Amino acid sequence: MPTRNRAAGEPTRPTQSTPPIQPTPVTEPASPPAHVRPTTPATPPRWMTHAPLVAVVWAFGYGALRLVWALGGAPDLPPLGEDLLLVSGWGIVGLCALAAIVVLGLPLTTGRLTTGRLTTGHLTTGLALTGLRRATGRSSGANGPILRSGRLRALGWFLVGLGWSVSAAATAAAALLLVDLVGLLFFTTTWVDNAPGALSRAGCVLGALAVGATVLTHQRRLRGGCLTCGRHIRAKSPGRAEVRAPSWARTAAYVAVLGCMTRFGAQAVVGFGPEGHPLRVNAVSGLAFLVGAAVAGTVLPLALVHRFGRVWPRWTLPLAGRRVPRWLVLGPAFVISAGMTVYFGAGLVQMIADPASMTGDSGLPPAFFWVAVPAYLAWGTGIGVAALSYRVRTRPRCRACGC
Length: 403
Prior knowledge:
About 60% of the residues lie in helices and about 0% in strands. The protein is an all-alpha fold and about 400 residues long.
């Protein structure tokens, strides 16, 4: 029966017993199997969206400049009269044309990079698709023209190979940039005289890097790898980095040390004075150059394959036991390896093709160059191979795919 509230004098509703509310059980989402990897992230790194535009601008802008020079307006650039080696004149014009074909053609095989907003990478895709529609009259979908996927994939891998060839050839053509950088680093007098040619070589290398970055992006998409780290999404997780370097990496490191010792031995035979040095240097710059070369030829390659390259040794008291930043070792290793391999590889090819041109006005015997140049090449190649192993063994887990 209804009862009255004594304070208000009003009847109250009869009370009913309600069952208690049972909490809904929360189930944890099932974790994916160990062999299932996260898919490729939808948002690519920022450099991937800007590299195609840089490559297109370089191909047309630098190509137009080289076309004017090839038609008869080339200046006399020291130290050799031409700024580029191996590929100059109409050859570099052809490389720029091939670079444009590669950069504009690769989006046809993989589609544009999806970033949720208009980016510089959409420009090359739009230009490529518009040109293809006008040339063939075919429509295109979201990721490229409607063609057979097998043909697209084959075309994509062909353009990837062509793009890497163009990037390597442009880098080799600017091999003298290593001399410009050494002269600038050690305050020699060569970089002042070579400044116009150095700017042209730097532009050539910039284009080679832009083309290489664009090719790397589409290569990762073709093979189904992560856009950030490049690892295959179905590959097994590397887990903890390997501690010991493989035998082939240690062999390459000691080959680099042997190349350095051979180079210094050849210099000891002809002398370390200014007349025996390829650069015009004073005493302080010459000593700094020798010390830097010795460190780059002994400490650096050994750090790539031994523990002190990953963990600071005990004698570095403030840093002892801490992890060495990987790019503190990898950065100089890649720069030195690329510079030496390209410069002295091109020099060795030129020596074989024209033996009379190796001595120049240096006054050194030909035997010196036949010893020093291959030693430099072994030095740079050994550091590069050891650096590749160091990069794999020390790479952190990718934040994008979890690899």
